[in-house]
């Protein structure tokens, strides 16, 4: 399974592979940051996070979601990860952004 198979996802990108305890912290922080009407979209094998490498050096941890995250969920998740992870990271996701008026 790769990210391109996900309609909705959040992705953590880091320089080095995460230790399993840190990957679990990322997963639990993501779950806690989502609104009640959004959640993890596990596949038929109950996979809730997929690890892969992009560009030969970017370690990616993808979590499939039931829907795009909102701007508020994205901000909440970014703040929570800043408090939880003591490393440089990037965050990418599918996001539902309301149109500007």
Q: Unreliable runs, pLDDT <50, ≥5 residues?
A: none
Beta-strand content bin:
25-35%
CATH hierarchy, class: Alpha Beta
Derived from helix and strand composition plus strand pairing, the structural class reads alpha+beta
How does CATH name the architecture? Answer: 2-Layer Sandwich
Could you please say which CATH topology applies here?
Alpha-Beta Plaits
**Tally of structural domains:** 1
- Ends apart, CA distance between termini: 38 Å
Radius of gyration, rounded?
13 Å
Shape label: globular
Tell me about the largest β-sheet: 4 strands, antiparallel
What's the average pLDDT? 89
Task: Describe, in plain words, how this protein is organized in 3D.
The protein has 101 residues and is of the alpha+beta class. It has one domain: 2-Layer Sandwich (Alpha-Beta Plaits), CATH 3.30.70. Helices cover 28% and strands 26% of the residues. It contains two helices and six strands; from the N terminus they run E-H-E-E-E-H-E-E. The strands form two sheets. A four-stranded antiparallel sheet has the order 2-3-1-5, with helices on one face. A hairpin with a 3-residue loop joins strand 2 and strand 3. It is globular, with a radius of gyration of 13 Å. The model has no long low-confidence stretch (mean pLDDT 89).
């Amino acid at each position: 399974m790769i990210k391109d198979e996900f309609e909705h996802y959040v992705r953590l990108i880091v320089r080095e592979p995460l230790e399993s305890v840190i990957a679990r912290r990322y997963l639990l922080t993501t779950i806690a940051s989502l609104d009640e009407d959004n959640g993890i979209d596990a596949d038929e094998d109950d996979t809730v996070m997929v690890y892969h490498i992009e560009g030969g050096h970017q370690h990616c941890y993808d979590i499939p979601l039931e829907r795009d995250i909102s701007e508020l969920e994205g901000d909440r998740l970014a703040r929570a990860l800043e408090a939880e992870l003591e490393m440089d990271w990037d965050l990418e996701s599918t996001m539902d952004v309301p149109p500007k008026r």
